[in-house]
Amino acid sequence: MKIKIKMIGPLMYEAGFSEKEIEIPAATTADALIDLIKISRQRPKIVTRNGKAVAPGEPLEEGDKIAISPIYSGG
Amino acid sequence: MYGWTGHILRVNLSAKSHKKESFNEDFAKKWVGGRGFAVKILYDELKPGVDPLGPDNKFIVALGPIAGIPAPNTGKAVVAAKSPLTGFYGDGNLGTRVSEQLRKAGYDVLIVEGKADRPTMLYIEDDKVEFLPADEVWGQGTYATNDWIYGRYGKGVGVLNIGQGGENLNRYAVVRSLEGRAGGRPGMGAVMGSKLLKAIVVKGTKPIPQADPQAMKALGTGDLKKVQQIDKQTGWSIQSTTGVLSFCNEVAGLPVRNFRKTHHPDAWKIDGERLNAARIATYGCPNCTMRCGITIHDKEGHESELDYENIGLLGANLEIFDLPQVGSLNYLCDEYGLDTMSAGCVLSFYADAIDHGATSGDFKFGDAERAKELLRLAAHREGKLGNLLAEGSLRMAREFGRGSEAYAMQVKGLEVAAYNCKFIPGQALAFGVAAIGAHHREAWIITFEIKNTTRESYGPEKAAKVIELQRIRGGMFEFMVACRFPWIELGWPLENYPKYFNTATGLNWGLEDMWTTADRIYAMIKLHFLREFPDVTRKADFPPAVWFDPLNADTEGPIAGQVLDAEKYDGLLQHYYDQRGYDRRGIPTKETLKKLDLLREAAEAEKYAHLT
pTM for the complete prediction? Predict the structure, then answer.
């Protein structure tokens, strides 16, 4: 299935891209996606789908717009 | 007593006199420094009703026991006075060499009283105080003023100065220092201007007293290197604060079109990635190894140092998605010495008021060239329009009428920072109960709300989180005085800060002691507010009404159809009051004041208002 990913802040340099559409296996979870794009699981982050937080074990769906962001603290 | 110099320098501009005063260890331990010293001194020395722009107001520079000592990130000073924007205690912090130089000169606090008879530069070198003419730079911007000062004294001195905004008593004029540093959002620059005080220059030559200077040096400099390493590992300062713009855009928390919209398809044009690509230099504060000031060339070719608040409020909120143009607006605010956040909200409110028929005018969202002209008018109070724009959005709304106060984006008169809380209840509370008005520096809980709770919740866990962060951010970092960034942005352990404090002072404080001090300071700011506004109600802690208006709901995106619920917000506010020990007006109860050792201050407040 196809999803869109947006990497936010310094995570884009770790992942090597800022925004792209990728093909992933059906029912890939948020955590598995982190491994797929080679971001450290240990690094604090928030994954959102269509603007809402996604739990680590939650499966993603076709057409999702995923954003992966560091934990910002509002300056 | 170690850690503190134990001295206050009191300067009177009217009499051209100065006095070195001492404070004892009890005062030091009760109020610690920075915001703590400032709020206590202003409470004791200002009568309620004092004109914030009159000679009886006092301008304070306050430092703390680790300010200026090499350690993460101590190159900051608190500036404070009664605010001409909000009408009660106001303050801010900014990066400046004054933190080190004033302490080396032998003082933890500078109090400036009275009014000079001509534009003046105050020069302090240890025990020497000079009142020097500043006519040559009166009317000049902050960059030229800074250069003029550096030309006379070199770059090592500590400098605080104002631009045309402060000179002309713009109510959101700030104090400026170094290349791009600014602080004192609620008009602290106007207070300097009202005293004809163009600049303060400080040079000190004495050691800062510390309980164990060798241990402090090893600990502080070692930790500065460690913070630098973490920053390099995480890559935080590649985009520094500006990365959050994309996050806000994703989760519908970006201010767009005077906060009417929460996201925009063109936001990427001014985001952290674009800003980093346009970077020509990076600036930071003294004693900092994670410099956050990303500098670009603006449309006219000036160097303009930007952070998130600048691109959020002078960019997205004005629907200006052209980075060099946003840079120009930011440069002008810095040059004139205006708060970029309030300036962005004032301009967006003006455009919105025209859109909604509350006033007439020719300014439209997206018009960068007209925005530049309006900033010039506001900084100089030029003409009727310039005078109006210099007043801030709340006073403008009262002038316009026609229901426009609902979308004047401010709390207690201070404009909202660049987070759109149309449907982020906990952060709306954080703005509502921020000590000095809608500032972001005290509590920021958006990621917590979205990741760790449900966004829809108005539960006590959000009030608890706001209080936890107020104690840390609005409390400890503001009285120590140090920058919060190593902790909030890089996860530098909070426990390190009592360690710095104890090594400097020889005391043995833990975080709990810090929280008690923080609570005391928050209660004092509330007493300040009560004394000025004895008829206060809980409505003062509500965010702008437009966030509760269903007609203002997003029509698409993550929060389509949703806005804040006023009744539920009131319940969330009550959770906050209950946990704080405040009454239904949001004022600390007598019992709370007693616990915080504020009985004398409570008795003073009761001369003007009742306590419960």
Answer: 0.98
